[in-house]
Design a protein that fits this description.
Strand order of the largest sheet: 4-5-6-8-7
CATH architecture of one domain: 2-Layer Sandwich
Largest sheet: 5 strands, mixed, barrel
Mean pLDDT: 76
Number of helices: 14
Shape: elongated
């Protein structure tokens, strides 16, 4: 092989391996030095030099004295036919090993500074322990603990993930990614919302229950830009892209506020809050909501209140107006309350919120409010709260369906008649069978 052919071969090999020609020449020099030392009459040490233009190699040999010093410098450049088969085999092995080491180091340096970044890969393999994402030149490890529950990735699917750690291992760099990290939501919004990428809108906080619901608090550095509207986009186009990437995970976008009480009230969206009392040390918030908003504020299995507490960084205790009037202490008002199964859903045609119960019945927000006002007006206790219920349940900022469900204690209560009271019968009228046993109307006795 001529020097010109060798130069072309090195250029092609460097292009194939994704390395620079300079790095490949260093590998070649190390391999030649290892091959030289396999010769029977080889010197103790050797320094191989190469001219990158002419591709001519020179071997400077040294002897090592008793003190470990390199002495007796001389030129011991062998001829090509003097290296022999063993030296050639050693050269090939060392060359391959050094190339793998250089490739591994280059990959590690490429991803070492990308922790906290988002990558897109193709699912290469999946099992009960982990999933492998093919990122091109390297594979990423998605452990089972970092996967969203109930997600079933299929081989060949394209998926985005968040880099949480880059490890250096003997087999090369290991990139650990996550689908449950809150940073994934932030990065996805940066991709979809130019205002966030430009720094005009900031995501101040993020609370997430992977696969179910996420709340983010946004802030605008420009008073002319609405942070919530920028994240939602025209007709919800921007937030819809993020929701689709997260396989339908609901996302609530609330405006950030430096006033902690106001921030807690907004974090409990879509529920409407009457009053927020912050403790002196600023670690606890006592929230008062209308009776018909209690279950909506708490959320299914306490999810809405739990996410609001994580988002604001304070403990959130929620009580209804009735519980406040009855002196129920904060933090213990909902222990014995039972909740009906169902969820609030926005009507696609009218936009009005509707309660879809588990039994298939549907109650509009206006009908629900009318019934709540009727129940309040039928209360003979004389506490002056009749007709004081709120008119709206509050809309989610992102336009997603609401997760709150009305308490069964707030179901349509039957008013007892005077005849029923006289005969000692129950206060439920014969014409209404919707009231549950757990929703026995305590107000009948007052009448």
């Amino acid at each position: 092989m001529t020097n010109l052919d060798m130069s072309e071969a090195i250029g092609l090999l460097a292009q194939e391996k994704g390395l620079s020609e300079e790095a490949l020449l260093h590998v070649l020099v190390d391999a030649l030095a290892s091959a030289y030392k396999r010769r029977p009459d080889a010197a103790d040490e050797v320094v191989v030099e190469v001219n990158p233009e002419t591709m001519e190699f020179s071997f400077i040999a040294y002897d090592v004295d008793e003190d470990g010093n390199w002495v007796n410098e001389r030129d011991d450049t062998p001829k090509k036919d003097e290296l022999g088969r063993i030296a050639a085999q050693t050269f090939r092995q060392v060359m391959s090993q050094r190339i793998r080491e250089v490739e591994s180091e280059r990959k590690f340096e490429e991803y070492a500074n990308r922790e906290g970044d988002i990558v897109t890969g193709i699912i290469h393999r999946t099992d009960a322990r982990y999933t492998l994402l093919d990122l091109g030149r390297v594979e990423a490890l998605l452990p089972q603990a970092e996967q969203v529950p109930f997600e079933r990735p299929q081989q060949g699917d394209r998926q985005k993930a968040y880099i949480v750690e880059v490890r250096r291992t003997p087999k090369g760099p290991q990139i650990v990614v996550s689908r449950t990290h809150p940073g994934l939501i932030k990065r996805l919004f940066e991709l979809e919302v130019p205002e966030i990428a430009d720094g005009i809108v900031e995501i101040k906080a993020c609370a997430r229950e992977p696969g179910h619901r996420t709340k983010i608090a946004v802030w605008s550095n420009d008073h002319n830009v609405d942070p919530v509207g920028a994240c939602v986009g025209a007709r919800g186009a921007r937030v819809r892209q993020v929701v689709n990437e997260m396989r339908g995970e609901k996302i609530d976008i609330v405006p950030f506020s430096e006033d902690l009480g106001d921030f807690v009230a907004k974090a409990l969206s879509p529920a409407k809050v009457n009053q927020v009392i912050i403790s002196e040390d600023g670690t606890q918030a006592d929230v008062i909501v209308p009776d018909h908003q209690l279950s909506l504020a708490i959320g299914r299995e306490g999810q809405n209140a739990r996410l609001a507490a994580r988002l604001t960084g304070v403990r959130v205790d929620i009580r209804s107006e009735t519980q406040l009037a009855e002196g129920v202490p904060a933090g213990g008002g909902d222990a014995d309350v039972e909740y009906a199964d169902g969820e609030w859903v926005a009507n696609a045609e009218t936009g009005e919120m509707e309660w879809h119960a588990a039994d298939g019945s549907i109650v509009s927000e206006s009908d629900w409010q009318a019934q709540a006002d009727a129940d309040a007006g039928g209360d003979g206790s004389g506490d002056g709260e009749a007709g004081g219920a709120d008119e709206t349940t509050g809309d989610a900022d992102s336009g997603d369906a609401l997760d709150g469900e009305p308490a069964a204690a707030e179901a349509n209560a039957d008013e007892a008649t005077d005849d029923d009271e006289a005969s000692g019968e129950s206060g439920a009228s014969d014409g209404d069978t919707d009231a549950e046993a757990v929703a026995t109307d305590d107000k009948a006795g007052d009448d």
